[in-house]
Design a protein that fits this description.
8 helices, 5-stranded antiparallel sheet, 4-stranded mixed sheet, 20 strands, single chain
């Protein structure tokens, strides 16, 4: 188990914010997670649990303990739950890199993760954040989550429904926040590849490549190309990917805005609700490519806030608040950060 004092978190957040924590611990087995859980529960020192830091904005030094999973490994079990005939379970250590597991699943001939390619972060975060992209969400795949309870250290297994997944939400972000250390996540994949192409510009990009019936690997490669074209590399320009969640509004609200803004993009949620892209609204407010001090909005995707170089967490929060105020003023819609601000 890794255990460091007065530790820099610069390499543990993709914004590249150079702040420190009082103590940093990384558990590498379930038994180590049990030890850490019991220690956290019987200490007065504050703590936070992080993943790969791709959905995290640090605003100051943390006078407490930062904990993350270093559990690696994965396994397959040819036993489906939702689809008994063609299903297969994939169980991954919570410290595995999510996109590595997407690549592994396709190589093994098991499908379902393709549309979630290149989403940054760890496996554990997929269960916490309910990561999603291009019409797919982690909750579509998650069967169960393995964890240990704080402070007892008692191992627990919780099923998909118990996690109460919603759009970029789960109980791990709400009433279960900082209550569990996740050790493994089990997903159900399929031995049959069924492409999902009707979201964003997937079909257009496939047509550009002259691909009519993509393989899983071709779909993955296409989504990676799309993401790379519009998202900056955190190693070059610090960012956390999509900073804001896309708001879901009532149909009456959407129709009112659509009559005012011709061609406003939207995605149907259900008969009474519509999702409006936050990036489009931010762009309409004139923020795309603009900066506020050392923090800025990416010039290719307005949903992404970036560290132009040396920005503090407080500067990025100030930019976030300015954008939210302008969107509220123009559209009368509240947009909320997807990232965790600490």
């Amino acid at each position: 188990m890794k255990d460091f004092k007065d530790y820099s978190l610069k390499e543990h957040n993709t914004f590249g914010i150079d702040v420190k924590c009082k103590r940093f611990m990384e558990y590498e087995t379930e038994q180590e997670a049990i030890i850490v859980a019991q220690m956290l529960g019987h200490s007065d020192t504050p703590y936070i649990i992080i993943g790969g830091g791709s959905n995290l904005l640090l605003t100051k030094d943390f006078d407490g303990i930062v904990v993350r999973s270093g559990i690696k490994g994965y396994s397959f079990e040819a036993s489906g739950v939702r689809n008994e005939a063609s299903g297969v379970r994939m169980t991954c250590g919570s410290g595995e890199v999510w996109d590595d597991m997407v690549a592994v699943s396709i190589k093994a001939g098991y499908y379902g993760m393709e549309n979630l390619s290149l989403i940054p972060g760890d496996v554990g975060a997929s269960a916490v954040q309910n990561i999603g992209a291009y019409g797919a969400e982690a909750r579509d795949l998650i069967l169960c989550v393995y964890m240990v309870e704080i402070p007892t250290g008692k191992p627990r297994i919780l099923g998909n429904e118990e996690c109460e997944y919603g759009y970029r939400q789960s109980r791990f972000k709400n009433d279960w926040k900082n209550r569990f250390l996740i050790t493994h996540v089990t997903y159900e994949l399929s031995k049959t590849f069924t492409p999902h192409l009707d979201y964003g510009n997937i079909r257009a990009e496939l047509e550009r490549k002259d691909i009519k019936e993509p393989t899983a690997q071709q779909l993955r490669d296409t989504i990676i190309d799309i993401r790379n074209a519009k998202l900056p590399d955190p190693k070059v320009e610090g960012n956390a990917g999509s900073f804001f969640m896309n708001p879901i509004v009532g149909r009456e609200k959407y129709e009112s805005l659509a009559s005012k803004y011709e061609g406003m993009p939207h995605y149907e949620v259900d008969a009474n609700h519509v999702k409006i892209p936050a990036g489009w609204m931010i762009e309409q407010c004139g923020w795309k490519g603009k900066s506020l001090g050392r923090a800025g909005v990416h010039d290719k995707q307005a949903l992404v806030l970036v560290n132009r170089g040396g920005a503090t967490g407080e500067e990025i929060v100030a930019l976030c608040n300015a954008i939210r105020a302008d969107v509220k003023d123009k559209f009368d819609i509240d947009i909320h950060p997807e990232v965790n601000i600490v």
